[in-house]
Design brief:
The protein has 263 residues and is mainly alpha-helical. 71% of the residues lie in helices and 5% in strands. The strands form two sheets. A two-stranded antiparallel sheet has the order 1-2. Strand 3 and strand 4 form a beta hairpin. Helix 7 runs antiparallel to helix 8 and helix 7 packs antiparallel against helix 10. It starts with a helix and ends with a helix.
Length: 263
C-alpha cells in the first residue's frame, strides 16, 4: 500500500493563489485509516499494528503516521493505552445508552419493533451480499453459520443468540455497504438480547427449531449461490416465521393470564 504515490496524485488548490499543492501525507494516511474503519477492515476494539509495522505497510515515515494517528485520536476514533498500543474505539456509533437498551430489551412491543427492524436491515444485507459477496465473504458467512450449530450444543440461549448475530454481521460485511454494517454492528447488543428472549419463548415449541434451521440454511444457500432476490425472500420468510410463532405465543399467554384472573 503505497501512500506516497497517492500523495503525488492528491492535489488541492490554494484559495489565495489558485495554485495546486500536494495534500499533506498525514491527511492521506488519516483518510485511508478512516476508510478502513468505515468498511469494517478495522473493527471496534481492534488493536492497530505497531507503529513501525504500520509505517512499513503504508510505506510512509513514522512521523507522518504518528501525526495521522494523533488526528484519529482527536476525532475519538482510536484510543491509546500507555505501553499497550492503539485501539479502534469501542464506542463507535454508540447511539443507544445502556438504560435505553435495558428498557427496549424488557419491553414486549420493542421486541416486535426489533423484528421489523431486522426485516429491513437483514433483507437488504442479504440482497447485497448475494450480489457483491466474494468467495472469502461466503467462506466467512459459512463459518459463522457453522458456529450457530456448535453453540446449540452448549444449550445456552445467550451463546446461541450471539452466534446468530455474528452470522448476520458476516452477511452485512459481505454486502459491502458500510452504513448497513456499522448500523447493524452498533445494534448488535440489543439484537442479541432480542434473539435470546425469542429463543426462550421458542424453546416451548421445540418442534419449530428444525424449521428455523431450515429457513436459515435456505438463506445461506441463496447468498452463496449469488441470487439476490432469492436471498431477500429467504431472509423475510425466516423472520416472518419467527414473528408468527411469537405472536401466537403472546396471544396464548394473554388468554392464560385472563383465565388466571377469572379464577
Amino acid at each position: 500500500m503505497n501512500v506516497n504515490v497517492t500523495a503525488n496524485k492528491s492535489m488541492k488548490a490554494s484559495k489565495s493563489t489558485g495554485r495546486v499543492k500536494p495534500q499533506k501525507l498525514a491527511d492521506i494516511i488519516l483518510a485511508q485509516l478512516e476508510a478502513m474503519i468505515i468498511e469494517g477492515s478495522l473493527q471496534p476494539g481492534e488493536k492497530l499494528l505497531p507503529e513501525r509495522e504500520l509505517a512499513l505497510q503504508f510505506e510512509v515515515s513514522r512521523p507522518s503516521l504518528r501525526e495521522a494517528i494523533q488526528k484519529l485520536e482527536a476525532k475519538g476514533l482510536v484510543t491509546r493505552k500507555q505501553g499497550g498500543g492503539t485501539f479502534v474505539s469501542n464506542n463507535l456509533l454508540s447511539g443507544f445508552s445502556d438504560p435505553l437498551f435495558e428498557l427496549m430489551s424488557n419491553n414486549n412491543e420493542s421486541q416486535f419493533d426489533l423484528l421489523e427492524f431486522r426485516h429491513g436491515i437483514e433483507g437488504m444485507a442479504s440482497y447485497y451480499a448475494a450480489m457483491r459477496g466474494t468467495p472469502a465473504d461466503f467462506e466467512h458467512i459459512q463459518a459463522k453459520h457453522n458456529e450457530i450449530g456448535n453453540s446449540q450444543l452448549e444449550d445456552d440461549f445467550r451463546s446461541e443468540a450471539e452466534a446468530v448475530v455474528e452470522f448476520h454481521l458476516a452477511i452485512c460485511a459481505a454486502s459491502h455497504n458500510a452504513v448497513i454494517l456499522q448500523l447493524a454492528r452498533s445494534m448488535s447488543p440489543l439484537l442479541a438480547d432480542n434473539i435470546a428472549q425469542n429463543l426462550i419463548v421458542l424453546a416451548k415449541r421445540p418442534d419449530i427449531f428444525s424449521k428455523i434451521t431450515d429457513y436459515r440454511k435456505r438463506l445461506l444457500n441463496a447468498i452463496i449461490s449469488g441470487e439476490p432476490q432469492k436471498a431477500w425472500g429467504a431472509s423475510h420468510r425466516h423472520l416472518a416465521f419467527i414473528e408468527e410463532i411469537l405472536l401466537k405465543s403472546t396471544q396464548e399467554n394473554s388468554r392464560m393470564e385472563r383465565s388466571m384472573r377469572r379464577m
